[in-house]
Amino acid sequence: MTSKFISNKLRKELSSGNKFSKPIIKVAIVSIAISMLVMLIAISVVRGFQREIKNKVVNFSSHIQITEGGTNFSLETTPIKKNQEFYSNLKNDPEIKHIQTFATKGGIIQSNPDTVEYENETKINRDIEGIIFKGVNSDFNWQNIEDKIVEGSFFRINDNETNDSILISTYLADRLKLKINNKIRGYFFNGKKPIIRPFVISGIYETGLEEFDNQFVFADIKHIQKLNGWGIETSLFLELTPKNNKIVISANTIGGNENYQYKFGSRPFSNYNTISFCATKDTTIQVISTDFSLNTITLKSEALSIPDTAWLEINVNSTDGNCVTADLEFEYESINDSTRKYIGSNGEITTTLHTSGGSMKNYVGGFEIFINDFNELENQEISISQQTSPFLKISKITDLESEIFGWLNVLDTNAIIIIILMIMVAVINIISLLLVIIVEKISMIGIMKSFGSTNRVIQEIFVRLGLHILLKGMLIGNGIALIFIFLQKTFGFITLPQDKYYLSKVPLGFEWGEFILINLVTFVFGILILIITSLFIAKITPVKAIKFN
Fold first, then answer.
1. Could you tell me the CA-to-CA distances from 407 to 246, 381, 415 in Å, in that order?
2. How far apart are CA 373 and CA 368, in angstroms?
3. In terms of CB atoms within 10 Å, which of 156, 299, 404, 495 comes out highest?
């Protein structure tokens, strides 16, 4: 009974604490709470950074890209056919979130004129900036970057018409002093001569990633398709000068390698691009054209581009029933973009042009694929490569942007180091606290042993005290961490220089699994240290302990 009484008294003294041990207990609780807070905030910041940067990079580009195989060091993507067998398969794959086409081309944009007075002379300055035009199609998912548009809006893409609107970054807008709805010029080079294209700024975006903001301008992919000469585009028109009282229909083709051949109706392909006939009744002329190249193995001409088709609907109104013709040339007027009326000496001819829009629309620079789960990136890359041609190149975002993702991986190492250091701090505090209390209560330990208390009973008392302090410190640390994370995610009061960290606010991520794991590891290490430290009690003898006081 006496031993039990003394044990209860020791428990009460340890739980209440005296003038000496009470401040030490408070310091230990605060230290453990701070260690937990730092660990949880550290892992939250790391996960927040990784999540936000990954989302920015992926949304701007994609998880996986499919492009033409081989080595390409230019800013222009090599054309591949859009109608691939894998395209429809991937669109129906439940693991694929979205697939879209794209193309890129290097170019230059020019600023608005800036008038400067210099030595009584007025000079006009213009700044230029080299950029990469990223052509996007009607399948482009604007939701991926919609929240990055700081001014204006994105532009709609129509499959049948070319949109001259573009989306530029805040970096380019500031550098070139450009604003929404400004009209600017883009300069391109196709190896022969510079080509100028007018554009209108519909929106300004900002991702915070210099690799993208400093270079990319979003534009309609049809600009890139035409500028790069992918595929061909064919039209038909009636020549103003008749030939032997017959009208002459000419085909005009652009794009490709310019080695064109034409097929009128059921006639075979030939180099002739004209056909003549007597215009006495309504008819429709059809032509199919493509560019040909010589196969060095078979020594035969083979079609290089996807053929294009054009139709010219001809309505004839003859006043005398003979072939409508003109003495010298037809007089004509344009009814609209596709319809013309020709007036001859004995009647009128109305032509209406119908085109397929050119075969260039069947070519793209590549495919951007978005998957549902980033953790499945490696597996999806293998799966996609098995469905595509071996001549196509499959690239995942971690390879395309290896520097950014390498930096993100380093953050994991930093977080682990911080967690280890904080656990060490908490462990050292627990050891120090328990040893100080043991030394302070050494005479009472001796009395308990002299009355028959076992080492195990005394160790249990001290371990329970340490466990109480450990749990209290962990609880406080977790509570403060959760409140801090909630406030930062809601209000974002801690900001960052975006030009250095890619983000304007400190991002905090929260994953229950990692939080539970950190708490569990800290708790297990704490228990082990408490048990190991309490073994010091076994070395205390009653006689020396009582004399110690």
1. 72, 22, 13
2. 15
3. 404
In order of 34, 436, 464, the CA distances from 30 in angstroms are 6, 17, 18
223 to 107, 131, 368: CA distances (angstroms): 12, 15, 19
pLDDT for 6: 47
Provide the residue type at 209 as one letter: L
Confidence of residue 118 (pLDDT cuts 50, 70, 90): low
pLDDT at 92 over 80: yes
**CA gap 67, 83 in Å, rounded:** 14
Coil, helix or strand for 281?
coil
Tokens of 403: 């520097």
**DSSP-based three-state secondary structure for 34:** helix
The secondary structure of 132-179 as a DSSP string is: EEEEE-TT--GGGTGGGEEEE-----BTTB---EEEEEHHHHHHHT--
Query: Could you count the other beta carbons within 10 Å of the beta carbon of residue 165?
Result: 19
Nearest CA among 439, 316, 384 for reference residue 99: 384
List phi, psi (to 5°) of 107.
-165, -175
Taken as a whole, the chain contains a residue count of: 549
The CA distance from 124 to 359, in Å, is: 42
Antiparallel, parallel or unpaired: β 194-205 and 165-169: parallel
Tokens encoding 12: 């009460």
AA letter at 37: L
DSSP 453-519: --HHHHHHHHHHHHHHHHHHHHHHHHHHHHHHHHHHHHH--SB--HHHHS-SB------HHHHHHHH
In this structure, is the dihedral angle defined by the CA atoms of residues 447, 449, 453 and 454, taken in order, positive or negative? positive
* Side chain identity at residue 77, one-letter code: T
